[in-house]
Amino acid sequence: MVLCVMQAAIYPGNVLSLYMKKPSSFKYKSGMYLFVKCPDVSPFEWHPFSITSAPGDDYLSVHIRTLGDWTTELRNLFGKACEEEVNSKKATLSRLETTVIAEGAEENTK
Ligand SMILES: Cc1cc2nc3c(=O)[nH]c(=O)nc-3n(C[C@H](O)[C@H](O)[C@H](O)COP(=O)(O)OP(=O)(O)OC[C@H]3O[C@@H](n4cnc5c(N)ncnc54)[C@H](O)[C@@H]3O)c2cc1C
């Protein structure tokens, strides 16, 4: 499932938050996690992250702490996009394609 990243933010402590459009068929419960792949970082790697948005929200969010190579690269990618937006004084973030798949999503969407 390819999801569009609507907004990204970098917080102190090297935490990157991603807010993505939630497809209406995508159901989840508190405490579930999803796997994220970002082809611009690696075409093959999937990494698990807890879903931080509430099941009733109309968006999906994850908060990603920078630890190793993949999370560092992802943070740098979005950091660059955020900087470009700030410098060009545009209100919206450049879109970067991010693919996510949710654990147990097939059972929940039937
Ligand atoms: C079910 C589940 C849910 C998760 N939810 C979240 C979440 O909500 N948010 C979140 O931020 N993470 C979460 N994680 C962890 C997250 O998936 C990993 O942090 C991420 O995949 C690491 O990828 P990486 O390639 O950047 O790091 P890797 O290179 O795989 O590094 C991983 C390990 O190596 C250590 N390490 C790597 N480089 C260094 C270094 N230079 N110095 C010291 N230690 C180092 C890290 O401490 C870490 O333990 C979750 C993991 C699981 C299993």
From TrEMBL:
Q: Which residues form the FAD-binding FR-type domain?
A: 1-110
Give the UniProt record's GO annotations in the biological process aspect: anatomical structure morphogenesis; defense response to bacterium
One GO MF term, please? superoxide-generating NAD(P)H oxidase activity
- Any one annotated GO CC term: plasma membrane
Where does this polypeptide localize?
A: Membrane
Concerning InterPro entries, the annotation shows: FAD-bd_8 (IPR013112), FAD-bd_FR_type (IPR017927), RBOH/FRE (IPR050369), Riboflavin_synthase-like_b-brl (IPR017938)
Q: Which UniProt keywords apply?
A: FAD, Flavoprotein, Membrane, Metal-binding, NADP, Oxidoreductase, Transmembrane, Transmembrane helix
What is the recorded membrane topology of this protein? Multi-pass membrane protein
Judging by the UniProt lineage, the source's domain of life is Eukaryota
User: Where does it mainly reside?
Assistant: membrane
Q: Spell out the protein name for this chain.
A: FAD-binding FR-type domain-containing protein
Q: Which species is this UniProt entry from? A: Aegilops tauschii subsp. strangulata
